[in-house]
Design goal:
The complex is a heterodimer of chains A (537) and B (549). Chain A contains 21 helices and seven strands. Chain A has 537 residues and is α/β, with parallel strands linked by helices. A five-stranded mixed sheet of chain A has the order 3-4-7-5-6, with helices on both faces. Chain A has a two-stranded antiparallel ribbon with strand order 1-2. In chain A, strand 5, helix 5 and strand 6 form a beta-alpha-beta unit. By secondary structure, chain B is α+β, with helices and mostly antiparallel strands. In chain B, the strands form three sheets. Chain B has a seven-stranded antiparallel sheet, covered by helices on one side. In chain B, helix 9 crosses helix 13 and helix 13 runs antiparallel to helix 14. In chain B, 41% of the residues lie in helices and 15% in strands. The chains are: A alpha/beta (537), B alpha+beta (549). Chains A and B meet through helix 7, helix 8, helix 18 and helix 19 of A and strand 13, helix 8, helix 9 and helix 20 of B. Chain B: Belongs to the protein-tyrosine phosphatase family. Non-receptor class myotubularin subfamily. Chain B: InterPro entries: Myotubularin, Myotubularin-like_Pase_dom, PH-GRAM_MTMR6-9, PH-like_dom_sf, Prot-tyrosine_phosphatase-like. Chain B: GO terms for molecular function: protein phosphatase binding. Chain B: It is found in: Cell projection, Ruffle membrane; Cytoplasm, Perinuclear region; Endoplasmic reticulum.
């Protein structure tokens, strides 16, 4: 574990400040709680009620500690229903928990009271949804093990709903298959599409997004929702956070997305260490649950190019660091474990780093004031709108990406615009000074702007643009007589062209980008440890 | 023939128009000789003006006393008209059907259309072979413009003027024409000024089973080779297809008779398969079921993107042979009017920056598609919804546009035009008020006096306001060869055509506007800074103290 705390140069004080940058308390205040309906509960202060929950939680005003502990005993890993998001516009809430230990017939008065209290804390609605994000079959199978799902007859005024998102094992296999397909060297189109289909990956992404949309719509219509799966730290985290992104424009900002991940994933005990295989752990615990969340956000960005303050690079950077462990944010599986490791003293925080470099992650087309980028996003969910995320899954195959980036182009323009604004101001000043007949002995040379602002952008990439790819796979179909002709220097041989193809590919990994890119492309390979690890305490 | 005979009910009131993602509009439906019009007679709502020739298929159903007509258009839009009255509905449906399938070209709308705009640059005079040849002459003197086909007798699908090697006389051309399918003897398609290599196109040689040869044909194509150099023949058919063609009198250039040429076969599908592919793709895009597996398997089964990949790959290969291998290239398939033109035109877009400008792209379409005899009339008679047995229909041109769109996506700053221009060309190739895409060849257009009796699409496009709409704000002239990626991950479904009517384009439009805003603000600042700089310089020279050293 010590290897994962690489940079120990700066004093602890500085690190603490980094960690203070993101404060969940402030986030709940932003949502408008505590208020007359929801209160802060310290019942889990020492992680006694649920060791995988955060120390501070929000529960309905009317709940007593005994209701909480009673309910927690009736839920897997003690993860009782608690607030995830409060929609202050209409006072509806998204709550989360683990599955109830209902078996075939068990009941728990406190748990029923808990749900009743959640329902009552939303004065405008006379019912609430309980969304079990698992396929019905899986949930029923759990009943045999004394777990299961809520019986509508036992809980007053709930509407129960399954969301049919598959479990971590299905997702792991699906991603593995998908990665195998995108690692193929020049597959045919059919082979690629068949592989993509049979991996089932996009189907799963759609299932997560569909569930998020259901919840977001319910909340927007004023109905509170309780979400759970089995343990309430994988599918529940996905669905709650997707719903938040759809509902609240704040989570579509750079800071907002960081807060959201901190809230719904880090603090609520998504098992990053296990799921991302940070240490050599049980391979069956590994699963790309957070990848799917990031991909859902990316799919939404594709549909709403002006609705997000951040760009694709932001998501990919977060993804890399979730797996790289260069920062302390995703170490261990829950808040309790992280507190014991004193991560805020021994590691740096990714959020602080991302915020410091936020200009790199800004979407230049972001327009929060457009009508359709405000409030609830209503994405199309027809299958044809779900795309393969080349930017992440083939991110090191540079030859596959557009050779000119609209974003880089606009960024260059933007930077030039800023220079022009400065120049404009200084020219104006000089003119007015000159007009006052003041003597200027030196005229500072103004920046040369005759050069195209994009020259530097393209100067970099057109080398690649100037490299042909492998267009030659057809050489197998050349008639046999050609194979006998001696190779002259003038003839084109498949080897020669493969060489040009390979040389363009060797540019694939960026030699200069350093540590950030050491994280491997497949999350299943052991993540690379940092070279400076011997400095670690 | 009078259109009035075909219009049984010219007008129906109380018709309701349903379009996807838009509120229904109630209004009066009118049929004219060329249009189906629905007007709500309110100022604020948009009227529907639909060219009959844009209608691909019509279905009618009855719901109680209301007749329902589903109109499926060649631009892939589907609209629904609810018509009160059984008889009216039947009449409208049968009239539209008759009017949308007129046999005679001279009855089509372009012959009746009178432009509502002032024609500044007449598109019919913009792209003369002489002008293109002047450019060529400024680079090389190895070619000449031959009028051997001036009365279309040597090759009915070629234009009157073609560029051929200087050393080959018209008599040799006539002989070579008898050796090529449809008389399409090898002609110059593109001269690569970077290294003087050329691309030629033709139809298949008529070698037949007994290996016929033609000295003039051999001499003609060998005349394009530099001493000691070899060239490539890119045959757009798989080797077995090319072999089979021999039985029907066709064939390919044998090693023995063309020792200086190396043949490469690229399997590009023929028209029937492509039409089938389009039908399947559009069906998949309109599938309302929310099943991901079904969508992906239908997308795969249509193989549309597979065709895009094959065509692009072959074009890249041709470009690679010319630019990287420094070899001349001859491209042909069977007739030389479909896949051949896809390859030669795409290769030029890759190689020649001039083809990536609005004007240059029009010139490319004129040379490589219209003059080169792509049978637009046959290929674009029906689109994806047609129930009839496909005859000669095929989305050959649409596939070409799709490939251009893919390159545009990969090089978003290297094209002077944007996606809108490609979509416009797709629409007009299937149904248009302009005469540009009429007929199957230059000969047919000449016979119909298309250039005298109709307006050219280019006359419309090359007006400032239209050019502005079609321009790509990101364009920065890029003089380099651009090599697209043909990996499946890099090729996308063209939403702007295939999902155009099932999405709201609002988000994309606003993103585009935002982009424009950023760029325009920058330009405005540049102008203001330059103005101030000049002012400053003036003030400085007026300042006497500054002039003393």
């Amino acid at each position: 574990m010590m290897y994962t705390c690489p940079c120990c140069v700066s004093p602890n004080q500085e690190r603490r400040q980094e960690w203070d940058f993101l404060d969940l308390k402030a986030e709940y205040t932003r949502m408008g709680i505590p208020n007359s309906l929801w209160k802060r509960s310290l019942v889990n202060q020492h992680y006694k009620v649920s060791d995988t929950y955060p120390a501070e939680l929000f529960v309905p005003e009317s709940t007593t500690p005994s209701v909480i502990t009673g309910s927690s005993k009736f839920r897997s890993r003690g993860r009782f229903p608690t607030l995830s998001y409060y929609y202050k516009e209409n006072r509806a809430a998204i709550c989360r928990s683990s599955q109830p230990l209902s078996g075939f017939s068990a009941r728990c008065v406190e748990d029923e009271q808990m749900l009743e209290a959640i329902l009552r804390s939303n004065p405008h609605s006379d019912f609430m949804y309980v969304v079990d994000t698992r396929p019905k079959l899986n949930a029923m199978a759990n009943r045999a093990a004394g777990k299961g799902y809520e019986n509508e007859d036992n809980y007053s005024h709930i509407k129960f709903q399954f969301a049919a998102i598959e479990n971590i094992h299905v997702m792991r296999n699906s991603q593995q298959k998908m990665l195998e397909v995108c690692e193929l060297r020049s597959p045919s189109m059919s082979y690629f599409l068949e592989g993509l289909e049979s991996s089932g990956w996009l189907k799963h992404i759609k299932a997560v997004l569909d569930a998020g949309i259901f919840i977001a719509k319910a909340v927007a219509e004023g109905v509170s929702v309780l979400v759970h799966c089995s343990d309430g730290w994988d599918r529940t985290a996905q669905v709650c956070s997707v719903a938040c992104v759809l509902l609240d424009p704040y989570y579509r900002t750079i800071r907002g997305l960081m807060v959201l991940i901190e809230k719904d994933w880090v603090s609520f005990g998504h098992k990053f260490s296990h799921r991302c295989n940070h240490l050599n752990g049980d391979p069956k615990e590994v699963s790309p649950v957070i990848d799917q969340f990031l991909e859902c956000v990316w799919q939404l960005m594709e549909q709403f190019p002006c609705a997000f303050e951040f760009n694709e690079r932001f998501l990919i950077t977060i993804h890399s660091h979730i797996y790289s462990c260069q920062y302390g944010n995703f170490i261990d599986n829950n808040q309790r474990g992280r507190a014991e490791l004193l991560l805020c003293e021994k590691t740096h925080s990714l959020w602080h780093y991302l915020w410091t470099n936020r200009t790199d992650y800004t979407n230049l087309l972001y327009r929060p004031d457009h009508s359709h980028t405000q409030g609830l996003l209503r994405p199309s969910t027809a299958p044809c709108w779900f795309k393969f995320w080349r930017g992440l899954y083939n991110r090191f195959d540079r030859g596959m990406h557009p050779r000119q980036s609209v974003e880089d182009y606009l960024r260059a323009i933007q930077e030039e615009t800023e220079q022009l604004e400065e120049l404009l101001a200084s020219h104006k000043q000089k003119i007015s000074q000159l007009k006052e007949k003041q003597v200027w002995n030196c005229t500072p040379k103004s920046a040369t702007l005759n050069k195209s602002p994009t020259a530097w952008v393209f100067g970099h990439d057109l080398g690649l643009a100037n490299t042909p790819q492998d267009y030659m796979s057809s050489f197998l179909t050349i008639s046999p007589c050609h194979l006998k002709t001696p190779r002259s220097s003038l003839t084109l041989s498949p080897q020669d062209l493969n060489k040009t193809y390979d040389s363009s590919h060797s540019n694939g990994s960026d030699q200069e980008s350093g540590i950030a890119d050491l994280s491997c492309r497949s999350p299943f390979r052991e993540s690379t440890r940092d070279q400076d690890s011997d400095n670690a305490v | 023939m009078e259109f009035a005979e075909l219009i049984k009910t010219p007008r129906v009131d109380g018709v309701v128009l349903h379009r996807p993602l838009m509120p229904p509009v109630e209004g009066t439906l009118c049929l004219t000789g060329h249009h189906l019009i629905l007007s709500s007679r309110q100022d604020n709502t948009e009227e529907l003006w639909l060219l009959h020739s844009n209608i691909d298929a019509i279905e009618k159903r009855f719901v109680g006393s209301v007749g329902r007509i589903i109109v499926k258009c060649k631009d892939l839009r589907v609209i629904q008209l609810d018509i009160p009255g059984m008889e009216e509905c039947i009449n409208i449906a049968s009239s539209t059907e008759a009017l949308s399938t007129l046999d005679s070209i001279s009855l089509t709308y372009p012959f009746f259309y009178r432009p509502m705009f002032e024609v500044v640059h007449d598109g019919w005079n913009c792209f003369r072979p002489h002008d293109a040849f002047k450019d060529l002459e400024s680079m090389t003197d190895e070619w000449r413009l031959s009028d051997v086909n001036k009365d279309f007798s040597v090759c009915p699908s070629y234009p009157p003027l073609v560029a051929v090697p200087k050393g080959i006389d018209d008599e040799a051309l006539r002989m070579a024409a008898t050796f090529r399918h449809g008389g399409r003897f090898p002609v110059l398609s593109y001269y690569h000024k970077n290294n003087g290599m050329v691309m030629m196109r033709a139809a298949q040689p008529l070698t037949g089973t007994n290996g016929r040869r033609c000295k003039e044909d051999e001499k003609l194509i060998n005349a394009t080779l530099r001493p000691g150099k070899r060239g490539y023949v890119i045959d757009t058919r798989a080797i077995n297809v090319a072999q089979q063609a021999k039985a029907k009198g066709g064939g390919f250039e044998s090693e023995a008779n063309y020792p200086q040429w190396r043949r490469i076969h690229k399997a590009i599908e023929r028209s029937g398969v492509l039409q089938e592919s389009l039908i399947k793709l559009v069906e998949a895009c309109n599938d309302q079921s929310h099943n991901m597996d079904r969508w992906l398997s239908k997308l795969e089964a249509s193989n549309w993107l597979g065709h895009v990949k094959e065509i692009l790959t072959a074009a890249c290969l041709a470009a690679q042979c010319i630019d990287r291998e420094g070899a001349s290239v001859l491209v042909h398939g069977t007739e030389g009017t479909d896949s051949t033109l896809q390859i030669t035109s795409l290769a030029q877009i890759i190689l020649d920056p001039g083809c990536r400008t609005i004007r240059g792209f029009q010139g490319l379409l004129e040379r490589e598609w219209l003059q080169a005899g792509h049978p637009f009339r046959q290929r674009c008679a029906q689109s994806a919804y047609s129930n009839g047995k496909p005859r000669q229909e095929a989305p050959v041109f649409l596939l070409f546009l799709d490939c251009v769109w893919q390159i545009l996506r990969q090089f978003p700053c290297s094209f002077e035009f944007g996606e809108a221009f490609l979509v416009l060309l797709f629409e007009h190739s299937y149904a248009s008020q302009f005469g540009t895409f009429l007929g199957n060849s230059a000969a047919e257009r000449a016979k119909l006096s298309v250039s005298d009796k109709t307006v050219s699409l280019w006359s419309w496009v090359n007006r400032p306001q239209e050019l502005e709409r079609l321009a790509n704000p990101l364009y920065e002239s890029n003089g380099l060869v651009i090599w697209p990626s043909v990996a499946p991950q890099s090729l996308l479904l063209w939403e702007g055509v295939f999902l155009r009517w099932n999405r709201s384009s609002r988000c994309a439009d606003e993103a585009h506007e935002e982009m424009l805003h950023i760029i325009e603000y920058n330009k405005e600042l540049q102008n203001r800074v330059n103005l101030l700089r000049r002012q400053l310089a003036q003030l400085e020279t007026q300042d006497p103290l500054l002039q003393t050293p």
